[in-house]
Q: What sequence folds into this?
């Protein structure tokens, strides 16, 4: 067996372990809403790859738990499995809750990584169940320890102390093209996990806009930039300082209040179509920008300022 065939056989074994573990988790967390998969097509794709029906892996297995870990409040545990989990790569496990500050969520994620590195000694077999069980058993302690770390870094008490401001940021990202369905899913998932608003337009060219707290937009950029791109760059970075706790002011700055979604700007195309083969309808895109008070970006993206200057679609 040549090296490529050996690698493929090993990967199939890893993917089968992922599916077997998910089946086990589904039997354990079987109450309504406890365990969900956003796209069951990913399971079909993994099964087809394992059986040899396809040679392409177009997605990763990701799912989310919603567990009552806080009084009167469900907490999400998001799980994303790389193709070489469990033997060669660690899962991405993130805790999300409306009542947990974002900085603390990041510290919780770091603590989960440390637990895996220090406590999960046998990584040849799937271990998401072990990690989730540990989170459930130690959640109160985890919250306390990460909150204490935050307090320990606070400024010394002072009668003249003021609350630090936060920075709202909007990034306009331009890429030569965006073809991969896996990459498209990563963009959408990352933006939504970080609670960013905006849109992505796959195809050629690809345009992505994200807006929210600067810490989150920069984390989004750090996540997508290492993906394989022919060319990708930030065309424009808009920032504005907001007084900490000014949620209404932050909301007013957003141009895409409905959330983050993929926009195709092609009249006869859906999300399962080959976006890279479809031309962007420039007129639809211009109307979209104007609707969301973003007409100023036309010059940065295409070199013209007004829809009247745009080429016909």
A:
């Amino acid at each position: 067996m040549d090296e490529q065939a050996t690698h493929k056989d090993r990967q199939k074994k890893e993917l089968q372990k992922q599916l077997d573990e998910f089946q086990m988790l589904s039997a354990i967390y079987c109450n309504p809403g406890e365990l969900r998969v956003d796209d069951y097509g990913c399971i079909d794709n993994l099964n087809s790859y394992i059986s040899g029906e396809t040679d392409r892996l177009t997605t990763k297995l990701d799912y989310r738990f919603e567990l009552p870990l806080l009084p009167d409040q469900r907490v999400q545990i998001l799980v994303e499995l790389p193709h070489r989990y469990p033997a060669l790569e660690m899962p991405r496990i993130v805790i999300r809750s409306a009542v947990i500050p974002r900085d603390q969520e990041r510290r919780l994620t770091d603590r989960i990584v440390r637990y895996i590195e220090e406590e999960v000694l046998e990584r040849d077999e799937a271990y998401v169940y072990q990690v989730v069980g540990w989170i459930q058993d130690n959640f109160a302690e985890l919250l306390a320890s990460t909150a204490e770390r935050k307090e320990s870094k606070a400024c010394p008490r002072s009668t003249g102390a003021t609350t630090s401001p936060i920075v709202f940021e909007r990034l306009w990202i331009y890429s030569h093209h965006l073809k991969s369905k896996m990459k498209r899913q990563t963009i959408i998932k990352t933006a939504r996990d970080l609670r960013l608003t905006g849109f992505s337009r796959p195809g050629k060219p690809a345009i992505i806009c994200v807006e929210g707290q600067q810490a989150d937009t920069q984390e989004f950029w750090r996540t997508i930039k290492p993906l394989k791109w022919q060319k990708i760059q930030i065309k424009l970075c808009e920032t504005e300082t907001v007084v900490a706790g000014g949620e209404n002011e932050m909301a007013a700055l957003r141009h895409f209040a409905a959330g983050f979604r993929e926009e195709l700007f092609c009249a006869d195309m859906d999300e399962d179509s080959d976006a890279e083969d479809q031309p962007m309808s420039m007129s639809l895109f211009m109307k979209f920008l104007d609707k969301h008070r973003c007409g100023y970006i036309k010059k940065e993206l295409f070199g013209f300022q007004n829809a009247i200057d745009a080429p016909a679609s």
